[in-house]
Amino acid sequence: MGAKKGGKEDAVEDMPHVPLKAILLADSFTTKFRPITLECPKVLLPIVNTPMIDYTLAWLESANVEEVFVFCCSHSKQIIDYLDKSKWVNQPNFSVSTIESHNCISAGDALRFIYDKNVINGDFVLISGDTVSNMILTEALQEHKERRQKDSNAVMTMVIKQSKPSQITRQTRLGTDELFMAIDPATKQLLYYDDKSDDQKGTLTLDKAFLAENPSISIHNDKQDCYIDICSPEVLSLFTDNFDYQHLRRHFVKGLLVDDIMGFKIFTHEIHSDYAARIDNFRSYDSISKDIIQRWTYPFVPDVQFSLNNPTNLERHGIYRASEILQSRSAEIGPFTYIGKGSSIGGKTVISNSVIGDGCKIGSNVLIDGCYIWNNVTIEDGCNLKQAILCDGVVMKSGSVLEPGVVLSFNVVVGQEFVVPAYSKVSLLPQPVTQDSDEELEYADNNSGIIHTIDTLENGNSRTEWESSEVGIGGRGFIWSMSEVDHEEEWRHSVAPIPETKLIELTQMVFDNLELNIQDDIVLAVPGEQESGNESDDDNMDDSLQIFEKEIEATFLRAVHEKVKDDHIILEVNSLRLSYNLALEDCASALFYSMMKLALDTTHTSPASLVKNANDVMSRYGKLLKPYLQSVDGEIEVILKFEEMCSESAKEFAAVFVQILHMLYDKDIIQEEAILNWAEEKEGADESDKVFVKQSEKFIQWLNEASEEED
Fold this sequence. Notes:
711 residues; alpha/beta; Spore Coat Polysaccharide Biosynthesis Protein SpsA, Chain A; UDP N-Acetylglucosamine Acyltransferase, domain 1; 4 domains; 9-stranded mixed beta sheet; 20 helices; 40 strands
């Protein structure tokens, strides 16, 4: 008997396949990466030795996007030439096409231009070519489609994730300003978006009418905009209908949120374990580079070939090495460092927390810490570099020094023993006579207003003899000047850590501006999130605690590798505690976990050497726990955290639980009373929960006897 035709299943099968498309904006429309981006498009700048755009395209391919339209204007020939030679040409089921325009000066102009090309006829992903992500897009796409079926005005889904800003700097770890969002907790509709708070930092003014119209809202200052948007085709037509839309967030998103005539809506999709971040400034360049090296972005990491990057081997302590490296036996390569193909490293040179590109020549007695050194860079003997960026072809003459935050653009030469001051930007191009403002309308292409200032350049070299240089004898380059205001704010976006003096200054104001001021004297406090409803947020608290612990671990590890002072570490931990509104005990547990994880990750060959590692770590950093262990209950929390590690995430410690507990007692980190109370609390517990108490019976008995003798 033949099967029936024309049923629902057949209708689904007969539906034509609609390929998922993406628009990738290859222009950043910003001056934050100048002077580098005057010579090279931002999306082709390397991050851990791979162009930014390759991370974005690799993610789009993994997310089952089938067609990508790369829009380029500034430096369009460089981008097109690169893509023509890349692996993205002739990929099966993944097409990359370029759309070129020389007249667009904003993202709004770009989207209007693409609309006229009529290449988008369904939902699409909107992303910039400086985005790194490994998120699975399926769930967000499904949510978007289901909402569209119920409400045709649901035109956009914005991907967000949790990211607490520092209560001291009012910035995220990516160097972006504190972001305020109001979200409907039930529908996830975005109701309010403000990436620049009022003149008084940390405050936000809402109208009473807004609260009346939205009886249930969550107000956040702990979300990060990932700049990944799922859009309906109407988004492009909205840009065409509204020529005043230039900036994607400042104009388009805010415009839709206040437009009560058309009724278009934006929704959010929050990711948790996945990674997504945009390289918006030099600080985010540094943070995302570290995330890649520490494998938060897996599978888009150096030892996995997702583009034409050179094969790389991952070694212990997060060290990556490409092939054909020449390294002196007396040279030291520290943790979380990448060494590119064909690079050479001289004797007694020390490199840590840095990226070294391909074909670099590094001399002897060189100190490199926290630097990003691109391809074919030469660093002669005795140089000292900290938290700096060196572009392709840079030469540092012997004995020269880069203070923190320096950026050397392409082919700059620093003269012998010359010291480049902190935060300096050096280029072979003279500084433009007039700087554009830092808006999305900023642009730097062959038609921009700066072309008249760089006509002294020919084939990358100045026609002058560089008889006198701003960067020392034998040097080549102009040090771009900064106003006092620019210099004051430069620390916000630099690869260099925030100066300790600045942190101390800002900490004095940390308790100011913690309230959310509502018009007519209605005030809502915003420690992280406020809801005008009675929904339980236990799950949110659990998520926040996990994220807090990860941030504490990252902060501690960076402090260890960068040799940060103890006072500075405590400042950063206190800032995180204020951001997450957590107790002292939570800081103690998170710090203790980070210390024990460091001991575990340090080379050891036996249980005894593991105990030695733990002893060494506690001898050096144990005093950091003291400010957070103000009570016996806090010390018990640390013991419970150690039990949890031994049972779950760090089982190798289980065999030496007693030895380490004894060591913590000897170092006065855990007091006798805390250990005895912990054992007493376990008396009524299940047998499975008494494993470590039983291991510690002799030690506990000794403590009891000692206590009785004292009595």
